[in-house]
Design a protein that fits this description.
Layout: H1 2-18, E1 28-35, H2 39-52, E2 56-63, H3 65-73, E3 80-82, H4 86-94, E4 104-108, E5 111-116, E6 137-140, H5 145-157, H6 160-163, E7 167-170, H7 173-181, E8 187-191, H8 192-196, E9 201-206, E10 216-221, H9 228-237, H10 241-249
Parallel strand pairs: 1-2, 1-3, 6-7, 6-8
Antiparallel strand pairs: 3-10, 4-10, 5-8, 5-9
């Protein structure tokens, strides 16, 4: 009887020894450097993630993708990088500043032409921006992905020389949107998702995708991230069904 009891206890101990321990919950904080056009949706996702994971804190640094890249190159704190193009991500990859295997495409977008909601100008297309009565057009500065894509459209349409002199350049896509909202310009070029956040602008036209390079938002962990486990967990969350639903609801294109 004692021998059988010994065998039973030995078996239980063996099972316990080989049963995987439940992973300890990830805690702490991370800094997410993300494109300005992602501000609303990522802020909402950060809030929901924190509610589901007590003890975590997601801090965001929103801005122009080019500016954020420069900050990371200079050593600014960042655990995740989510730009609005591949170019800025590729630049950091080439400098060995990104955990390349973690890179994933999170969403896509469309480029649109907008005017103030009370505008009486009969603008119907990107070509109409060449008209003499259109004097100021807001676009992102060089290095701002939305602005770079707008210039690609002008080049393909062969209207660069007629539109560039009218350009009012914004430091990021949200500043471009604000220029249109306030009536400081007759028109502007932003992402569809930014236009949908404002009742003070209306979408006039959407740029055909063959006129510009793809608009997509890659996300990846920055090498030397202060909290790699939490960065990986939040990046995975941004690819979840819950996140995709929020991206789609905000007007983004989901992969």
């Amino acid at each position: 009887m004692r021998f059988r009891t010994y065998l039973l206890l030995s078996s239980l101990l063996s099972l316990t020894a080989f049963t995987p321990a439940q992973a300890a919950p990830v805690k702490g904080s991370i800094v997410v450097s993300a494109a300005a056009s992602l501000k609303d949706v990522l802020s909402a996702l950060g809030t929901s993630f924190q509610a589901q994971h007590p003890g975590t804190k997601i801090d965001f640094n929103f801005g122009s993708s080019g500016t954020l890249r420069t900050q990371i190159e200079a050593g600014a704190p960042a655990d995740l990088f989510v730009p609005a193009d591949d170019k800025n991500m590729d630049s950091l990859v080439s400098q060995n500043l990104i955990d390349t295997p973690s890179r994933r495409v999170l969403a896509g977008n469309r480029l649109v032409l907008v005017v103030p909601s009370d505008s009486r100008l009969k603008i119907k297309s990107f070509r109409d921006l060449t008209r003499a009565d259109i004097e100021r057009v807001a676009i992102g500065a060089t290095g701002v992905p939305a602005g770079d894509r707008a210039r690609e459209v002008f080049t393909k349409l062969r209207v660069t020389g007629q539109i560039e002199p009218k350009a009012v350049r914004g430091k990021d896509v949200r500043e471009v949107l604000a220029q249109v909202e306030t009536g400081n310009v007759e028109a502007g070029i932003v992402y569809r998702t930014d236009a949908l956040t404002s009742s003070r602008v209306k979408i006039i036209a959407t740029a055909p995708t063959n006129l510009h390079s793809p608009i997509r938002y890659p996300g990846a962990i920055v090498k030397g991230a202060a909290n790699h486990p939490l960065a990986a967990q939040f990046l995975a969350y941004l690819r979840s069904g819950t996140a995709k639903a929020k991206f789609k609801a905000a007007g983004f294109v989901t992969p």
